[in-house]
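Class prep. Protein, please:
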Amino acid sequence: MTDVLISGAGVAGPALAWWLRRHGFRPTVVERAPAPRDGGYKVDIRGAALTVVDRMGLREQVSRHDTGMWRTRFVDAGGRQLATMDAALFGGREGDDVEIMRGDLARILIEATGDVEYVYGDSIAALDQSAGGVEVAFERGPNRRFDLVIGADGLHSTVRRLAFGPGSEYLRTLGHHIAIFTVPAEYGEERVELMHAAPGRTVGVYRTAGAPDARALFLCPSPAEEPDHRDVAAQRAALAAAFAGAGWRVPELLAAMADAPDFYFDAMSQVRMDRWSTGRIGLVGDAGYGASPASGQGTSLSLVGAYVLATSLAEAGGDPVAGFATYERRMRPFVAANQQLAERNLKGMVLGSNAQIRFQTLMLRLMPRLPGREGMIRRVTEPIRKAATAITLPPAPGLDTPVAG
């Protein structure tokens, strides 16, 4: 039996573990956090990723955790409503698309892999490839040997750094930073996303159906001196400086970030690599081809990537060279199509001037009354739909029907 170590218990890692287990591999997942992470923002599952969820037999569970968002309201610095939009249209969703909290999705996937070994509170310190396997040194636990190692450990992947070299050369920044954290429920409206735009800066806050708290989102140009991604105090200071003097409820939201247990602040970046594997070590999801939050497709890339990688390795009989080569050939066009969405989407997420904000507000007000409204909506969602379906999923060998965990 092929032993596979997966680094990261977010979305890509547990999804990959699910499929590897179904194909007869023996996966182990190591996660730096001491327990499954509950935080995170709401994420979309659409197109090919929905097909993957269906093949796992998890669609019903995922759909039960839909955020239930129904309206987006745009407000000015005084909190007055400027325009409204259907939440699904704002998120580029249509049909069976699902919006779910990232923590809920991760929990569903982890529970579906109940017989997989999860090692929490540890991480990989060193990798040594030799004939027939990979010797893994852990920060806390004893060394272990695996047949394959897969990095599913995000934008700042440890596996990528150890196997391919310093990560900065693979990161392509989009010139903006994003912050996400939990705030008290009273800052949001249930099932409503409140958005406030100022030149170069955007703030949003929302509360999903039945949620005991709300989530805040901040978008701004990247600071001249970017704080280290592990220095939370410096990150909070950078965010406060970027939004100094902002109106609406920004001062209150910034004050609340000090108590947020899940504060996140990082550059909007994409991972661009010429190859996603070296020997017996490979990458999946954000670690290998992160598209940035601006794409709206990071979760879908992780789910599809996990399926394609596991299927390709199974077809190759566990031969890593052949399996990784097939995986890359199948995934490259899909990754490229989804990464291209990011810059286009970012232009509409952060507006550069008051004139642009006024024009966007005017269009939002007029849209419900404009002739050809349905055609306009289709043009808005078409790029996302094309990218989300820009792959033909291979059949899963040996799996005629989906089986839930």
About this structure: The first strand starts at residue 3 and ends at 7. Confidence is low (pLDDT under 50) at residues 401-405.
